[in-house]
Amino acid sequence: MCTLEKRGNVFFLTLTGDDEHCLNPTFISSIRSALSEVKSQSIPGSVLITSAQGKYFSNGFDLKWAKSASDGSPSKTIDLLLNMVDLFKLLVVDLVSLPMPTIAAITGHACAAGLVLAISHDYVLMRRDRGVLYMSELDIGITLPDYFIAMMRSKIGKPEARRDILLRGVKVKAEEAVAMGLVGSAHDDGESVLEAAVSMGEDLAKKKWDGEVYSEIRKSLYPELCEVLGLTTKDVANPRF
């Protein structure tokens, strides 16, 4: 479901498996387990880069699994979807509280919860030759969890961009995503977006920032999101002088 590799101080989390990388309980658990390992091995200067193999970064919650596991019962399907929403919230908590800089290298489509997964990272880079960002909930007829909305409000500064993403269901390509403030930079293809992520990661690793201090400053930057996620902040002082 995912692989974890470490090169120097940079951790590489790669989503593997089927092409869409849909988020079901098993996949969410796999990613959380990898993040737990990253956290346990973190030292000053650690950095996380998340990418994915194939056409998608992630196509959101695994609705096909939910329908199959519920034997076609609409009420049971909804219950399984709500359970995935709760489980995914814990994954978002893991990322928002991870004691190191985080980078998402979007090498394919990132849709619905897959887009939320991407922007849960500190930095988001995207390829311009293929892939879109898309919140599909309006089109498929479901509302968004409160922490999805808090994430959008925290990470997308332009109200008109949030409106178009959530209330028009626009499919956003890389250059548009940069202009909207969804991603930080656009790159020619999958290889170049990964190269840019590695370059950024190596530069950040050189800072050798204290991970606990970094995490607390990140949390204080997004008070609305952290309140919805149930994360609290604390004062930390580990001066290097």
Automatic annotation (TrEMBL):
* This protein's pathway: Lipid metabolism; fatty acid beta-oxidation
GO-annotated molecular function: delta(3)-delta(2)-enoyl-CoA isomerase activity
Per its UniProt record, what SUPFAM superfamilies does this chain match? ClpP/crotonase
Q: Which UniProt keywords apply?
A: Lipid metabolism
Native organism is Artemisia annua (Sweet wormwood)
Q: What is its EC number?
A: 5.3.3.8
Enumerate the Gene Ontology biological process terms. Answer: fatty acid beta-oxidation
Gene3D superfamilies from the UniProt entry: 2-enoyl-CoA Hydratase, Chain A, domain 1
Q: What protein is this chain from?
A: Delta(3)-Delta(2)-enoyl-CoA isomerase
Q: Which InterPro entries match?
A: ClpP/crotonase-like_dom_sf, Enoyl-CoA_hydra/iso
Cross-referenced CDD domains, in alphabetical order?
Answer: crotonase-like
Reaction equations catalysed: a (3Z)-enoyl-CoA = a 4-saturated (2E)-enoyl-CoA; a (3E)-enoyl-CoA = a 4-saturated (2E)-enoyl-CoA
Provide the family line. Belongs to the enoyl-CoA hydratase/isomerase family.
Q: Name one GO cellular component term.
A: peroxisome
